[in-house]
């Protein structure tokens, strides 16, 4: 909650600073131009904030979670698109009112005569394309790698928009303070992206040099991958977190997939457990020991860092058991584990869960059966865990199951701060 409040305060302070800079830059006589310039400034601010949200800075990620940061990034992106569209429309119609030109010819005239306007229009066109492929309907039909490649053009749009602001922005050129502010804002946003997404992963991988030591089948569709490396005791990973993994083989080096650690880090080895049912993961079963691995992370706020109660309820569905199993290994206090699967044969890592539960004095419930009737409905959960309102609840599983369980928890009055979950669909 502190991290969220800090992020909101950060944005509010910058929104106020932009308003002050706008006022200092002077007002045009045409109200449409005034509105257009203001929309452009807030579009630039939202764009810089959007970069910060996906910079993957460890401090923010551990406290808020990459899934929530990515969701905020997505909605901020639509804010960027609408404010910049408003900027173009209001400014164009404002100048057209004074020149007598129709809006289209006025826009062409501005692009031809005002430095930086053409670059801004190219940036806007790129953002429109990116916004289109980010819509849910388009996103479902597109491979993650294709979507990610298109998304990289957002950085081109950022550079083009910034050069337009340097050339034509009144709040940028009207004072030395304004110039320093915008340079610092854009420099800080781009610097955060470089540090979090380029420098830190390269440094960590150069230091730890991860390699596959074994690939062990858990059943017909699930394998566990064991890795080792150098100085893993200095890798700041915790049970419940995940990495973006690239296995550096000829056919997989360009694919990055988010997989949680399925065992608590012990400073010597790492383990992930993967369902190999889709095109993007089927090849993991064939990875040879000795294969180098490039891992980005650790990421995620699904850790014991956010506990509010001494006891815990861990709810897993399907292969979502992987971070739950790791958390059980790390958590202190009394724990109840509820593992939801369709049939006994689908209960991956159940033997490990049973042994861990026995060693730690935890309760373990294997809940089997088809999705209907709901075996984790409010009455069923209350029967399995009568004191669940007094526990932290950690939840991981397929989205439909998670949505149903979250509804049950709300019905049973579990306070929001005690419910911890992350959705791992952000990267494919």
Automatic annotation (TrEMBL):
Parts of the chain that traverse the membrane: 33-54, 75-96, 116-138, 150-168, 180-200
Keyword tRNA processing: no
GO CC, alphabetical: membrane
Membrane topology: Multi-pass membrane protein
Keyword annotations from UniProtKB, A to Z: 2Fe-2S, FAD, Flavoprotein, Iron, Iron-sulfur, Membrane, Metal-binding, Oxidoreductase, Transmembrane, Transmembrane helix
Domain FAD-binding FR-type per the UniProt entry, residue ranges: 205-305
Principal cellular location given in the protein's record: membrane
Name the UniProt record assigns to this protein: Oxidoreductase
Pfam families: Ferric_reduct, NAD_binding_1
Gene Ontology molecular function, alphabetical: 2 iron, 2 sulfur cluster binding; flavin adenine dinucleotide binding; metal ion binding; oxidoreductase activity
Source superkingdom: Bacteria
Cofactor(s) required, per the database record: FAD
Record lineage: Bacteria, Bacillati, Actinomycetota, Actinomycetes, Kitasatosporales
Localization (cell): Membrane
């Amino acid at each position: 909650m502190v991290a969220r409040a800090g992020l909101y305060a950060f944005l509010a302070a910058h929104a106020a600073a932009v308003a002050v800079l706008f006022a200092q830059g002077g007002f045009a006589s045409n109200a449409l131009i005034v509105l257009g310039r203001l929309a452009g400034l807030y579009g630039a601010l939202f764009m810089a904030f959007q970069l910060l949200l996906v910079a993957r800075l460890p401090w923010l990620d551990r406290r808020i979670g990459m899934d929530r940061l990515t969701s905020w990034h997505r909605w901020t992106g639509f804010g960027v698109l609408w404010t910049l569209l408003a900027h173009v429309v209001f400014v164009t119609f404002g100048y057209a009112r004074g020149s007598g030109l129709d809006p289209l010819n006025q826009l062409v005239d501005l692009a031809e005569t005002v430095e930086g306007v053409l670059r801004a229009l190219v940036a806007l066109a790129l953002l429109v394309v990116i916004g289109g492929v980010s819509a849910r309907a388009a996103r479902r039909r597109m491979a993650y790698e294709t979507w990610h490649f298109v998304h990289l053009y957002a950085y081109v749009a950022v550079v083009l928009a910034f050069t337009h602001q340097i050339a034509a922005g009144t709040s940028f050129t009207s004072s030395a303070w304004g110039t320093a502010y915008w340079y610092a804002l854009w420099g800080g946003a781009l610097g955060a992206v470089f540090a979090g997404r380029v420098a830190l992963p390269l440094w960590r991988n150069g230091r730890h040099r991860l390699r596959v030591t074994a690939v062990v089948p858990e059943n017909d569709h699930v394998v566990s991958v064991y890795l080792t490396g150098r100085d893993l005791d200095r890798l700041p990973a915790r049970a419940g977190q995940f990495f973006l993994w690239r296995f550096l083989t000829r056919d997989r080096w360009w694919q990055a997939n988010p997989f949680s650690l399925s065992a608590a880090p012990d400073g010597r080895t790492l383990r992930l457990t993967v369902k190999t049912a889709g095109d993007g993961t089927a090849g993991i079963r064939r990875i040879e020991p000795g294969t180098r691995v490039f891992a980005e992370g650790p990421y995620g706020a699904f850790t014991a860092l956010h506990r509010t109660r001494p006891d815990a309820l861990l709810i897993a569905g399907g292969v979502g058991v992987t971070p739950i199993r790791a958390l059980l290994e790390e958590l202190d206090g009394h724990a109840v584990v509820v593992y939801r699967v369709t049939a006994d044969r689908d209960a991956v890592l159940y033997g490990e869960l049973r042994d861990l539960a026995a060693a730690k004095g935890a309760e373990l419930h294997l809940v089997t059966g088809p999705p209907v009737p709901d075996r984790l409905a409010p009455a069923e959960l209350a029967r399995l865990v009568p004191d669940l309102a007094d526990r932290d609840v950690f939840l991981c599983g397929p989205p439909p199951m998670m949505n149903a369980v979250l509804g049950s928890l709300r019905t049973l009055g579990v306070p929001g701060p005690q419910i911890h979950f992350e959705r791992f669909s952000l990267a494919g």
